Amino acid sequence: MSEFTPELAAIIRTYVDADPVLAQIIPGLDGAGRVVEAMVKPAPTSFFVWRSWVFKDEIMQNGFDWTLVDNLTVGKARIWDWLFSNTNMTCNPSKVNVRAGIDECWKGTTAMLAQRAVIYTHLKRNANILEWLLATGTGTIDNPANMRFEGSPGYWEMMKIWPELSD
Question: What 3-state class would DSSP assign to 57?
């Protein structure tokens, strides 16, 4: 994710100013806390984003068809392992090349495509308001958006929506 830039802060400020409740918030640390609380609520519409990390166990312990593993070629099995080849055993499905690797592993037969579909259910999630505001992409279940900021900002980061306070 990118850092909390003035550009992102301006997008949030526009949203806050347009919301009749949030627009009444007094700028400052307490107000920033109230904005943070509002921003981490679920997005007002179903808006899907690619997750930035998914544990291998989450995928392989939930709906994964273990009988298909033996049907992978050596190359596909190696790709599958390398996707998670890090200390956390996670992959970052927000990256196009990671999704391409998953697609390469699980293609061909109806069973392999069904396995891919199960895997993809773990790679996306609904966004919160902040993620929805700052995401790029369509945000549909079939074409999730990429997040420019993920999760919840700190109060000091949210203070950046009021640049007039930093003068």
Answer: helix
**27-67 pLDDT per residue, tens:** 998 999 999 999 999 998 899 999 999 999 999 999 999 99
Calculate the average pLDDT of the chain. 93
Q: Quote the CA–CA distance of 10 and 16 in Å, as a whole number.
A: 10
Quick check: 83 and 57 in contact, CB under 8 A?
no
Indicate left, alpha or beta for 89 from its phi (over 0: left) and psi (-120 to 50: alpha): left
The set of residues, in sequence order, having a beta carbon less than 8 Å from that of 6 and lying 6+ positions away, is: 160, 163
User: How is 102-150 classified by DSSP, letter by letter?
Assistant: HHHHS-SSHHHHHHHHHHHHTSEEE-BHHHHHH-BS---SSSPBBPSS-
Would you say 53 and 151 are in contact if contact means Cβ atoms under 8 Å apart?
no
Whether residue 7 is predicted with pLDDT greater than 50 in this model: the reply is: yes
Element housing 83 (H / E): helix 74-83
